[in-house]
Automatic annotation (TrEMBL), chain A:
<dbReference type="Pfam" id="PF13202">
    <property type="entry name" value="EF-hand_5"/>
</dbReference>
<keyword id="KW-1003">Cell membrane</keyword>
<dbReference type="InterPro" id="IPR051875">
    <property type="entry name" value="Calcineurin_B_homologous"/>
</dbReference>
<keyword id="KW-0813">Transport</keyword>
<dbReference type="GO" id="GO:0005737">
    <property type="term" value="C:cytoplasm"/>
</dbReference>
<keyword id="KW-0106">Calcium</keyword>
<feature type="domain" description="EF-hand">
    <location>
        <begin position="138"/>
        <end position="173"/>
    </location>
</feature>
<dbReference type="InterPro" id="IPR018247">
    <property type="entry name" value="EF_Hand_1_Ca_BS"/>
</dbReference>
<comment type="similarity">
    <text>Belongs to the calcineurin regulatory subunit family. CHP subfamily.</text>
</comment>
UniProtKB/TrEMBL annotation, chain B:
<dbReference type="InterPro" id="IPR045252">
    <property type="entry name" value="LPCAT1-like"/>
</dbReference>
<keyword id="KW-0812">Transmembrane</keyword>
<keyword id="KW-0472">Membrane</keyword>
<dbReference type="Pfam" id="PF01553">
    <property type="entry name" value="Acyltransferase"/>
</dbReference>
<dbReference type="GO" id="GO:0004366">
    <property type="term" value="F:glycerol-3-phosphate O-acyltransferase activity"/>
</dbReference>
<keyword id="KW-0256">Endoplasmic reticulum</keyword>
<dbReference type="GO" id="GO:0019432">
    <property type="term" value="P:triglyceride biosynthetic process"/>
</dbReference>
<feature type="transmembrane region" description="Helical">
    <location>
        <begin position="12"/>
        <end position="34"/>
    </location>
</feature>
<keyword id="KW-1133">Transmembrane helix</keyword>
Length: 182, 434
C-alpha cells in the first residue's frame, strides 16, 4: 500500500490514526461503516458531513478499512517543502499534493462521479450547505452564476480542469491541511 | 469425612473473621484501619512498578500516553474567518474547503467520542485491562503482576463476593422487616440504620475508599441532589454517607427485588417504563415528593448516562424544572486503582461488577457543594448549565456542551441547522444578490 512508504504519513501519525480508527470502530469489527462515522457529533452537525462520509466509501463499498481510512486523511497532510524538492517524476504523486487536494474537494461536489459538476449537482450540494434557510430561486441564482463563471468550454458543467483553473489563486495547501502535533 | 470437616472448619473461621472485622464495624460506622494499611501497601507497590516501567520503556511507546491531549493543531476561528470573507460575500467554489477541513478534523479527533471509553492512564497500574499495549519489561515486574492476579482473583474476589452477597441480602431482609412497622420516627431511624449498614458493607465489598469533603453541605430533606454520573456505583458511594430517595425505572430480576424491598422501608420514586415517557407525570410526582419536607432528598443524575469521569456533559433540563433547592455533588474517581467507568455498550452489569471486584480498589473523592436555586429570569437550561459548571470546576473535570445521549443516538439536527443558518447568512447577506 502506498500509505506509509516514502513518508506519506509519518510513523508517529500513523500510530495515532490507528488508535483513532480503533476508537471509532466501536464493535471491534476491524473496519468502519457509515454509521461509525455518523456517531461523531462534530461531523454530524457539519453541513457537508454526509458528503465527507461518502468520500470514505468510493465505488459503492460499505466498509472502510484502515488503509482506506488513512488514504482519505492523507489528502489533508500539510505540504512540507521537502516534498516538492525531492519530487521523483516516476513515483506516483503524493496524496497531499495540491492537485489531489483539489480533487478531493471536487469529489465533494461531483455526486455521480462522472468527472463533471453539473448545475444540478451544484444545486444539491448548495442545498446541503444552507439547509432550509435559502429559497430555491436564490439558490438557483447562485448555482447558475458559479457554473457560468467556471465553465470555459460552455458545456454547462464544471470539469476538474475548469475547477482547478478557477481556484488557481487559492491557497489550497493551507486551507486543506490538518497538522498533527508531534 | 475428614475433608468435609476441614472444609467446614475453614468456612466457619472465615465467616467469623468476616463478621468480626467487617460486618460489626459497618453497623457502627467504625473503621478498623485494615483498608488503610492495604491502600498504603498498594500505593507503594504501584510506585515501584511505575519506576520499573519507566526505566524499561523505549522512547516510542511514550507517544501513546499523550493521546488524551489534542493531537491536531486546531484553528478555532469562527466560520466567517475560516471562509475568509465578510458578511454578504458571495458563494465561492472554495467554501467547501472550510467544511471539509472541519469535518476531517472531527474525524481525526473529537472531544466527545473519547469520553465514552475509559480514561487512559499515564502509568500502568498492574492491571492488564488498563494497558492496551503492554510489553514485557522485566521478569520481576511480571512476577509482581502474577502475584497481583493471584491476590486479586483468589483472595480479594471471594471475600468481596461474600460481602456483596451478605450486604444485599441484609438490605432486602432488613428493609422488608422495617417495612412491617407502622410509620414512626423509630421506623425512619431503623430504616436509616439498615440502609447505611448495608451500603457500608457493599462499599467494603469493592474495597472502596471514599473521601467526603465539605460535609456541612450534605443534601437536606426536601431538596434535590444532583451529581455527575460515571457508574452505578455512584449511587452506592453517595448513599453510604446519607440517605436519599432514588428515582428510576422499575427493573426486573435482582434489581427489582432490591427496589421493591427498599420502597417498603422509605419512600423512593420508582417509575414503570411506560410512565417514564410521560414527562409531566414524572415532574408531578417529583414535585409532590419534595413538597413533603419529611421525605428524603431525591438523587438525580442529570447527564442521563455514564460518562468516563474526565468530563461533565450536558445536564438534561428536566431535573431543574421541578423547583426546590439543588444540592450539587461532584464525584471524582482515582483511576490509578481501578477504572470505575461503566461502558454499557462493552460490558453488561454482571461483567462490570466482576471487573470492579477484581480491581485493586475504588478510590474516589466526593465534594458536597453549597445549595443552588434558580434565579429570577434564569430558565431551566441556563440553571442546568450553571450547576454543571460548578460541578465541573469542583471535581476538576472538563465541561462539554454535548449531550451524553450521543453515546447511543445521533446528534440532533438542530445543531446542524445552526451551522447552515450561519453559512446562509454569509452568502445571501441581506438579501442582496445579483
Amino acid at each position: 500500500m502506498a500509505v506509509g512508504r516514502d513518508g506519506f504519513v509519518s510513523q508517529a501519525s500513523l500510530l495515532r490514526l490507528h488508535h483513532r480508527f480503533r476508537a471509532l470502530d466501536r464493535n471491534k469489527k476491524g473496519y468502519l461503516s457509515r454509521m461509525d462515522l455518523q456517531q461523531i457529533g462534530a461531523l454530524a452537525v457539519n453541513p457537508l458531513g454526509d458528503r465527507i462520509i461518502e468520500s470514505f466509501f468510493p465505488d459503492g463499498s460499505q466498509r472502510v478499512d484502515f488503509p482506506g481510512f488513512v488514504r482519505v486523511l492523507a489528502h489533508f497532510r500539510p505540504v512540507e517543502d521537502e516534498d516538492t524538492e525531492t519530487q521523483d517524476p516516476k513515483k506516483p504523486e503524493p496524496l497531499n499534493s495540491r492537485r489531489n487536494k483539489l480533487h478531493y474537494a471536487f469529489q465533494l461536489y461531483d455526486l455521480d462521479r462522472d468527472g463533471k459538476i453539473s448545475r444540478h449537482e451544484m444545486l444539491q450540494v448548495l442545498r446541503l450547505m444552507v439547509g432550509v434557510q435559502v429559497t430555491e430561486e436564490q439558490l438557483e441564482n447562485i448555482a447558475d452564476r458559479t457554473v457560468q463563471e467556471a465553465d470555459e468550454d460552455g458545456d454547462g458543467a464544471v470539469s476538474f480542469v475548469e475547477f482547478t483553473k478557477s481556484l488557481e489563486k487559492m491557497d489550497v495547501e493551507q486551507k486543506m491541511s490538518i497538522r498533527i502535533l508531534k | 469425612m475428614e475433608g468435609a470437616e476441614l472444609a467446614g472448619k475453614i468456612l466457619s473461621t472465615w465467616l467469623t473473621l468476616v463478621l468480626g472485622f467487617i460486618l460489626l464495624p459497618s453497623v457502627f460506622g467504625v473503621s478498623l484501619g485494615i483498608s488503610e494499611i492495604y491502600m498504603k501497601i498498594l500505593v507503594k507497590t504501584l510506585e515501584w512498578a511505575t519506576i520499573r516501567i519507566e526505566k524499561g520503556t523505549p522512547k516510542e511507546s511514550i507517544l501513546k500516553n499523550s493521546a488524551s491531549i489534542g493531537i491536531i493543531q486546531r484553528d478555532e476561528s469562527p466560520m466567517e474567518k475560516g471562509l475568509s470573507g465578510l458578511r454578504g460575500r458571495d458563494f465561492e467554489l472554495s467554501d467547501v474547503f472550510y467544511f471539509s477541513k472541519k469535518g476531517l478534523e472531527a474525524i481525526v479527533e473529537d472531544e466527545v467520542t473519547q469520553r465514552f471509553s475509559s480514561e487512559e492512564l499515564v502509568s500502568w497500574n498492574l492491571l492488564t485491562r488498563t494497558n492496551v499495549n503492554f510489553q514485557y519489561i522485566s521478569l520481576r515486574l511480571t512476577m509482581v503482576w502474577v502475584l497481583g492476579v493471584i491476590v486479586r482473583y483468589c483472595v480479594l474476589l471471594p471475600l468481596r463476593v461474600t460481602l456483596a452477597f451478605i450486604g444485599i441480602s441484609l438490605l432486602v431482609i432488613g428493609a422488608t422487616l422495617v417495612g412491617q412497622l407502622p410509620d414512626s420516627s423509630l421506623k425512619n431511624w431503623l430504616s436509616e440504620l439498615v440502609h447505611l449498614t448495608c451500603c457500608r458493607i457493599c462499599v467494603r465489598a469493592l474495597s472502596g475508599t471514599i473521601h467526603y469533603h465539605n460535609k456541612q453541605y450534605r443534601p437536606q430533606k426536601g431538596g434535590i441532589c444532583v451529581a455527575n454520573h460515571t457508574s452505578p456505583i455512584d449511587v452506592l458511594i453517595l448513599t453510604t454517607d446519607g440517605c436519599y430517595a432514588m428515582v428510576g425505572q422499575v427493573h426486573g430480576g435482582l434489581m427489582g427485588i432490591i427496589q421493591r424491598a427498599m420502597v417498603k422501608a422509605c419512600p423512593h420514586v420508582w417509575f414503570e417504563r411506560s410512565e417514564m415517557k410521560d414527562r409531566h407525570l414524572v415532574t408531578k410526582r417529583l414535585k409532590e415528593h419534595i413538597a413533603d419536607k419529611k421525605k428524603l432528598p431525591i438523587l438525580i443524575f442529570p447527564e442521563g448516562t455514564c460518562i468516563n469521569n474526565t468530563s461533565v456533559m450536558m445536564f438534561k433540563k428536566g431535573s431543574f424544572e421541578i423547583g426546590g433547592t439543588i444540592h450539587p455533588v461532584a464525584i471524582k474517581y482515582n483511576p490509578q486503582f481501578g477504572d470505575a467507568f461503566w461502558n454499557s455498550s462493552k460490558y453488561n452489569m454482571v461483567s462490570y461488577l466482576l471487573r470492579m471486584m477484581t480491581s485493586w480498589a475504588i478510590v474516589c473523592d466526593v465534594w458536597y457543594m453549597p445549595p443552588m436555586t434558580r434565579e429570577e429570569g434564569e430558565d431551566a437550561v441556563q440553571f442546568a448549565n450553571r450547576v454543571k459548571s460548578a460541578i465541573a470546576i469542583q471535581g476538576g473535570l472538563t465541561e462539554l456542551p454535548w449531550d451524553g445521549g450521543l453515546k447511543r443516538a445521533k446528534v440532533k439536527d438542530i445543531f446542524k441547522e445552526e451551522q447552515q443558518k450561519n453559512y446562509s447568512k454569509m452568502i445571501v447577506g441581506n438579501g442582496s444578490l445579483s
